[in-house]
């Protein structure tokens, strides 16, 4: 009986060691990474796309290290273009009306043209070619046919983001001598004095500073504070956040820079050097 027990233990140990050796030699799986400060990627999904394809495309985009916001309605995408300010948009699927909608979207966008790519939706070969031509004519950076492989999509998005980074000026905002926000070192100076902000308030101030003299609604502030996820925030939560930011600004001599616009939201109006 003892010999049978020892033999069983020995066999089990061999299996465990063999599994461990195989795990070490097996190629590592891709890691889904998502950085809160990573590039913002808007994914607009055609309503006819199957769920498995949607998940696969979303995972491929997350491997770029960016934040992916997925929507299925064009109206919702338009709101996010204005409020979330995505760096790249990916369209999963194409229809005959997509081109006209994109022309309207680019005209309405506050930042001008929004770089976008298109992933095919398993149309026939002739139809896929027609869709690709239409997408490229309206300004798509690339058209990736269905079935080509999502590694191509990840590489295309990474390349586009890298190109945008190298073409854009250094990510630093300077409002003459009154305000400086450095997105590289994550530091803020008000009237030459460095101030320290919690992460959420830092990005809220950055948004205010890049949209001076504009009224920012409570809904927009909620999106900024919680990464564009549309999370509901109680009014008191917003009031507390604004109160904290305003007190920090006032302590640095920036009293009155952040104004309350009753029934609308808040407006950031730093003084202009004359």
From TrEMBL:
GO biological process, one term: regulation of DNA-templated transcription
PROSITE patterns documented for this protein: OMPR_PHOB
Native species: mine drainage metagenome
Lineage, highest ranks first: unclassified sequences, metagenomes, ecological metagenomes
Matches recorded under InterPro entries: CheY-like_superfamily, OmpR/PhoB-type_DNA-bd, Sig_transdc_resp-reg_C-effctor, WalR-like, WH-like_DNA-bd_sf
Start and end residues of each OmpR/PhoB-type domain: 171-270
An annotated GO cellular component: cytosol
Protein name (database record): OmpR/PhoB-type domain-containing protein
GO molecular function: phosphorelay response regulator activity; transcription cis-regulatory region binding
Keywords: DNA-binding, Phosphoprotein, Two-component regulatory system
């Amino acid at each position: 009986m003892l010999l049978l027990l020892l033999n069983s233990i020995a066999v089990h140990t061999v299996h465990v060691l063999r599994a461990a050796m195989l795990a070490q030699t097996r190629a590592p799986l891709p890691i889904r990474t998502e950085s809160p400060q990573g590039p913002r990627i808007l994914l607009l999904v055609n309503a006819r796309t199957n769920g498995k394809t949607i998940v696969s495309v979303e995972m491929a985009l997350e491997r770029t290290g960016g934040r992916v916001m997925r929507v299925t309605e064009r109206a919702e995408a338009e709101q996010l273009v204005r409020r979330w300010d995505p760096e790249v948009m990916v369209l999963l699927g194409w229809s005959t009306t997509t081109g006209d909608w994109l022309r309207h979207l680019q005209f309405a966008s506050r930042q001008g043209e929004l770089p976008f790519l298109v992933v095919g939706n398993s149309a026939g070969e002739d139809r896929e070619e027609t869709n690709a031509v239409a997408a490229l004519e309206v300004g798509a950076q690339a058209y990736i046919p269905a079935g080509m492989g999502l590694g191509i999509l990840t590489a295309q998005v990474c390349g586009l983001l890298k190109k945008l980074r190298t073409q854009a000026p250094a990510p630093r905002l300077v409002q003459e001598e009154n305000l400086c926000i450095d997105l590289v070192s994550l530091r803020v100076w008000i009237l030459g004095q460095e101030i320290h902000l919690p992460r959420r308030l830092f990005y809220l101030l950055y948004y205010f500073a890049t949209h001076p003299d504009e009224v920012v609604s409570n809904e927009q502030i909620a999106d900024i504070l919680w990464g564009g996820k549309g999370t509901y925030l109680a009014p008191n939560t917003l009031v507390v956040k604004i109160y904290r930011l305003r007190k920090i600004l006032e302590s640095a001599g920036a009293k009155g820079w952040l104004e309350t616009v009753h029934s609308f939201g808040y407006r950031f109006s730093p003084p202009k050097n004359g």
